[in-house]
Specification:
- The protein is mainly β and 54 residues long.
- It has one domain: Single Sheet (Rubrerythrin, domain 2).
- The protein contains no helices and five strands.
- The chain has a three-stranded antiparallel β-sheet with strand order 3-4-5, with no helix packed on it. Strands 1-2 form a two-stranded antiparallel ribbon.
- The protein is globular, with a radius of gyration of 12 Å.
């Protein structure tokens, strides 16, 4: 288990989860990124920036 950095809800670790995977907090709906699997840790996913083809 890890704790949501936004609301503190417990985020379950599912078998096969990999570093860099995006998951959603079931309580607050925040998009989280798995930053470590041993130990299991998540952080708020970075916002995607617009790509204007530059």
């Amino acid at each position: 288990m890890a704790e949501c950095p936004i609301c503190g809800n417990d985020i379950p670790f599912e078998e096969g989860t990999v570093k860099g995977e995006l998951i959603e907090c079931s309580d607050c709906g925040s998009e989280l990124e798995v930053i470590s699997v041993k130990p299991f840790r998540v952080d708020e996913a970075p916002m995607e920036e617009e790509d204007w083809g530059q």
